Amino acid sequence: MINIKVREELMQAINGLTDEQLNKKVEKGTWSISQILEHLYLAEKVIVRNFTQTQPITEDNPVKMKNVQVVVDRSQKVNAPKFLEPSDEFHTLEQLREKLNSSRLMLVNFLAKVSEKQLDQEFLPHPFLGKLRLRQWIEFLYYHEMRHIEQIKEIREQL
Question: What is the pLDDT of residues 2-60, one digit of tens each?
């Protein structure tokens, strides 16, 4: 269930960047690569923490499967909820890797404890996509990361 390749692609996308490059904003009003990485960390951490607040899928409370892959489409701009917005603090690559490793460890630990049944029979609301089964939340995390990998690649070209 863990998609290691997406995280490896993320690490490859930032490989070789200096701390200054990571923290540079290429345009006013946009995020730096550091901020994108902090956002990914915050999103994964918050989502995994929210997994303790799932609700059961029932006949009275059904949850249809959604196309979470739509998240990769960067032609649709979406503003992050305030609590997932990154800070303007300067971060080193090492600090960012540690944050991303810690949030990923939270996910791995959750997945080690959850049953396949729970992944398909429990849900949480998503602010833009509506109700998502836990399994689709896991998929969302990977597609969300893929979306931001593309953003990082675009920024790298402008550095």
Answer: 788 999 999 999 999 999 999 999 999 999 999 999 999 999 999 999 999 999 999 99
Number of domains forming the structure of the chain:
1
Helix 33-50 to helix 4-14 angle, to the nearest 10 degrees?
Answer: 160
What is the Cα–Cα distance from 51 to 119, expressed in whole angstroms?
10
Between the alpha carbon of residue 106 and those of residues 44, 112, 137, the distances in Å are 8, 10, 14
Please report, for the domain that includes residue 136, its CATH number.
Answer: 1.20.120.450
pTM for this model (two decimals): 0.96
Query: Hey, what are 32's tokens?
Result: 């730096």
Q: Which domain holds residue 120?
A: 1-7+40-75+97-159
- Answer whether residue 1 is part of any domain: yes
CA angle 105, 2, 108 (to 5 degrees): 25
Q: Over the stretch 92-109, which tens digit does the pLDDT of each residue have?
A: 999 999 999 999 999 999
Residues 111 and 127: their CA atoms lie apart, in Å, by 23
Q: Please check whether residue 38 is in contact with residue 87, taking contact to mean a CB–CB distance below 8 angstroms.
A: yes
